[in-house]
Design goal:
The chain folds into two domains: 64 residues, SH3 type barrels (Roll), CATH 2.30.30.30; 60 residues, Ribosomal protein L2, domain 3 (Irregular), CATH 4.10.950.10. By secondary structure, it is mainly beta. The strands form two sheets. Strands 1-6-2-3-4-5 form a six-stranded antiparallel beta sheet, with no helix packed on it. It has a two-stranded parallel ribbon with strand order 7-8. Helix content is 7%, strand content 18%.
């Protein structure tokens, strides 16, 4: 289907209109924060925002997070919802699929527990079967030493005070 742009375009899915000419209750996506910036909000799969009201200070929209925000009437948005809702609900069936996702995101994966390491690799390393050395660490400790209870006021449970 051909898509239309501009304030005279019909309010159909895929058309791009200024917020001022979109009726209230319409689901929109790819919303501009300032006129002409190309669209910044409600762009991930399955997300959308809703036009709540038109006021003299601008158009009020409800964002996917639930917050409401006033935007300039000249900011443009696409009518409709981004496809791919439920993408995060599908389970990872192979470890490799999760590995490649985390690699694309730039996270350290898989992450080895400190207690499973040798003593040279981590302060919690080489302990017998998960027996942990819980110690407090200075806030000014160097990276690598700063693990566990960082700058804690106390370690363990509070003692009962004598009367």
């Amino acid at each position: 289907q051909p898509t239309q742009m501009g304030s005279e375009a019909s309010v159909d899915i895929g058309n791009v209109l200024p917020l001022g000419s979109i009726p209230e209750g319409t689901m929109i996506c790819n919303i501009e924060l300032s006129p002409g910036d190309g669209g910044k909000m409600a762009r991930s799969s399955g997300s959308y925002a809703t036009v709540v009201a038109h006021t003299p200070e601008g158009t009020m929209i409800k964002l996917p997070s639930g917050k409401t925000r006033y935007l300039n009437d000249l900011c443009r948005a696409t009518v409709g919802v981004i496809s791919g809702a439920g993408r995060v609900d599908k389970p990872f069936l192979k470890a490799g699929a999760k590995f490649h996702l985390m690699k694309a995101k730039g996270h350290m994966y898989p992450r080895t527990r400190g207690v499973a390491m040798v003593a040279a690799a981590h302060p919690y390393g080489s302990s017998k079967r998960g027996a942990r050395k819980v110690t407090t660490v200075s806030r000014h400790a160097p990276p690598g030493r700063k693990v566990g209870l960082i700058a804690a006021r106390s370690a363990g449970r509070k003692r009962k005070k004598r009367k």
